[in-house]
Amino acid sequence: MAIHSLLVANRGEIAVRIVRAARELGMRTIVAHSRADADSLAVRLADRAEEIGPPPTSKSYLNAEAILVAAENTGADAIHPGYGFLAENADFVRAVEAAGLVFVGPEAATIRLMGDKIAARGVAAKAGVPTVAGSPGRIDSPAAARTLVARLGFPVLIKAAAGGGGRGIRVAHDETEFDRLFPQAGMEALAAFGDGGVYVEKFIPRARHVEVQILGDGEHVVHCYERECSLQRRRQKVWEEAPAVSLPGKVRRELCACAVSLARSVRYRGAGTLEFLYDEDSETFHFLEMNTRIQVEHPVTECVTGIDLVREMLMIAGGEPLRLRQDDIDLNGHAIECRINAEDPANGFLPNPGVVEAFMAPGGPGVRFDTMLYPGCTIPPFYDSLLGKLVVWDQSRASALRRMERALTELDLTGVKTTKPLHQALAADRDVRSANVHTGFLEPWLERHRAKLG
User: Fold this and answer.
1) Which residues contact 314 (CB under 8 A, 6 or more apart)?
2) Interstrand relation of 269-279 and 221-233 (parallel, antiparallel or unpaired)
3) DSSP class of residue 321?
4) Which structural domains are found in the chain, ordered by start?
5) Closest CA to 399 of 336, 350, 451
6) Residue 330: Cβ within 10 Å count
7) What b/e sequence results for 62-83 when a residue is b if at least 16 CB atoms lie within 10 Å of its CB, and e otherwise?
8) Structure letter (DSSP) for residue 131
9) Which of 3, 104, 105, 135 can bridge 199 by disulfide, Cβ–Cβ 3.0-4.6 Å?
10) Worst-scoring range by mean pLDDT, 380-394, 419-433, 439-453?
11) Rg of the chain (C-alpha set)
12) Nearest to 105 by CA among 417, 267, 334, 317
């Protein structure tokens, strides 16, 4: 079914990104928005906007019924969920399809299967993809967990079986810590995802977080190479790069082949990302999970491959076969993305909503700023604090880092505090510049450098 009229069921920079891609394909665009986002940039850019409820997400962006009513009222024939909110909700996908609409993303069964991290581990193992040693399924009792941990050895991760975003995860370094954290992880998972199931796996302290971007049409699957996302705070990504400079060529080929094999085994349709932990010392990698949606960090992949991932998603959802073959996709240069959030890094990353008094985006060759900002816009206190993603590209990582420093200097944003000082400090850091980082690098670094972030 060709898509003529697309409803964007999201907000912020990703809603702007989707509107632009859809309009380039000749689609009529509609933005479903909360009352708090009535004057957002996405609303201003779209052909039409439809209010779906008051600011709380439960009454707007997570209100499936209101979104479907908006689609009916505006004559939409497809819905793009972006990321977050209902993007990986299989019940929402079924409701969209039951209403006779196209969901821009994979099938509900795929989302349900890969959204259960334990089931996804099983799919990965069946596809020949290595996984981290851990429990074969959910662990229902602390006693069963202790038996497993005795075999694995400390440290271990206690992880929510459902959901994502770093919630429902605890690291235990000994038995006492494990006994205290095991019930905590389950309670947080239940509160966040409505599912208190947890599992346990071996913790790799100095691993790198590497993920592979894939595209599929249900029959064919290709990879668009990998990204490194090791700079994380509280398991939330802060800074992303493509490609991962730590990967030897042989490992890159194996990693990407494993990602394609897994995605092909579930007949994947749309854009997706497979996340892995990479142990640089042993040059081994292990599957973590699959995100069945577009990722926040997708622009760095677009920069090094020249592929518009959102456009490809829309074309596949509209019934077109995947037009790319693996031989068509090459790596070119290096890209870096800094997430600019409305947070005060000198004050514990306290969210800082408010009115943007002045805004000027950086420019010049190889600079891209995906954002929701304009002078005078209001940053509401109800949602994620991401304001935009500053992305740079150049022929080498060293030159990309210099370009990022220049672009951060040019970024002018007043009225709210942002994480710009954090990224300026990271870009100048010796370990970051030499790519000597891992998933546990940033939080101790923040403790040492807090004075530089004011």
Assistant:
1) 3, 6, 21, 22, 25, 27, 80, 104
2) unpaired
3) P
4) 5-104 (3.40.50.20), 133-202 (3.30.1490.20), 208-453 (3.30.470.20)
5) 336
6) 9
7) bbbebbbebbeebebbbbbbbb
8) B
9) 135
10) 439-453
11) 21
12) 317
The torsion of the CA quartet 134, 137, 142, 148, rounded to 10 degrees, works out to: -30
Q: Which residues form the catalytic set? A: 293
Alpha carbon 178 to chain centroid, angstroms:
29
Mean pLDDT of 208-228: 98
Dihedral angle at the C-alpha atoms of 390, 412, 387, 432, nearest 10 degrees? 40
Spell out where 85-125 has E strands.
102-103
What is the largest distance, in Å, between two alpha-carbon atoms of the chain? Answer: 60
Question: By percentage, how much of the chain surpasses pLDDT 90?
Answer: 83
DSSP code, position 297: T
- Residue 137 C-alpha from the chain's centroid: 25
pLDDT digits (tens, 9 = 90+) for 300-355: 999 999 999 999 999 999 999 999 999 999 999 999 999 999 999 999 999 999 99
Q: Do the Cβ atoms of 198 and 144 come closer than 8 Å?
A: no
**Bond before 243 cis per omega within 30 degrees:** yes
Which residue shows structure tokens 């085994």? 265
Give SS3 for 134: strand
pLDDT score at 184: 87
Tokens of 154: 């400390």
Please enumerate in sequence order all residues whose Cβ is within 8 A of that of 201, keeping only pairs 6 or more positions apart, or say none.
Answer: 132, 133, 134, 135, 152, 156, 157, 159
| Alpha-helix residue ranges (DSSP H) falling in 101-174 | 108-115, 117-126, 142-152
pLDDT digits (tens, 9 = 90+) for 116-132: 888 999 999 999 999 98
Backbone angles phi, psi at 162, to 5 degrees: -115, 170
Q: Which residues contact 11 (CB under 8 A, 6 or more apart)?
A: 33, 34, 37, 40, 42, 61, 372, 383
Can you read off the two tokens belonging to residue 191?
Answer: 């509160």
